[in-house]
Amino acid sequence: MAVLVQVNFPMEGPWGAEMAEAFRGLAESINEEPGFIWKVWIEDQSAGRSGGIYLFDTREHAEAYVAMHTERLAGFGIAGVEVIYSDVNESLSQVNRATLTAG
Amino acid sequence: MAVLVQVNFPMEGPWGAEMAEAFRGLAESINEEPGFIWKVWIEDQSAGRSGGIYLFDTREHAEAYVAMHTERLAGFGIAGVEVIYSDVNESLSQVNRATLTAG
C-alpha cells in the first residue's frame, strides 16, 4: 500500500524559478531513490517554509529516504524538519482524481 | 499557480475499506468544489489520525473549501484540524513525476 509523507521545514530561499534551478539536480536524483513514486515540491516564501509531499511504495522505503534527506537538509543548514507518515486510502483518492503512480 | 493544502486531524475511525464506504458520497461531492483538482486521502489507524492532501487552483478556492470542511468536520465531532497552505514549485514537481492536474 502506498505511503504518503509530508515533510515541512523552515527555509530562507531560494524561491520559485531560482529554487527550481538550484534543486533541479537534487530532484533528478530523487527519481532514483528506492520505492519513490512522486513528489510535489512546496514553498511558502512569506512564511519562510518549504518541504515536499512524497508518495513511496512502502513505509520502509519512505523511512529510509527521510533519514537520508534529513541529514542532507542538515548539511544545507536546515533543521526543524517535521515529518508525517500516512497510509493512503486508495479507493477514496481515486474517486478524487489523485494519481497514485508516477505521472 | 496551484496551491497544495495539508489537512491533518485526529480521527477514531472508520479505517480502510470501511472508511472508503462511509465517505464515498462525501468524496464525490468534493469533486464539485470550485477550483478543486485532486485529493489524496490519508489515514493512520495506529496514531488515530486522518486528513487529506489537496491541490486547488488558487489560494482563495483552497481557503473557502477549508473553511467549509472544518465546519463539516466539527459536525462529525472532529476538532484540532491543522492546515498548511503552500505554493507548488511546478517545475521541480514535474521533474519528480507529480501530476498537477486531475488524474
UniProtKB/TrEMBL annotation, chains A, B:
Sorted UniProt keywords: Monooxygenase, Oxidoreductase
One Gene Ontology term of the molecular function aspect: monooxygenase activity
SUPFAM superfamilies in UniProt: Dimeric alpha+beta barrel
Organism domain of life: Bacteria
Key word Oxidoreductase present: yes
Pfam families: ydhR (PF08803)
InterPro entries documented for this protein: Dimeric_a/b-barrel, YdhR
Protein's recorded name: Monooxygenase
Species of origin: Tessaracoccus lubricantis
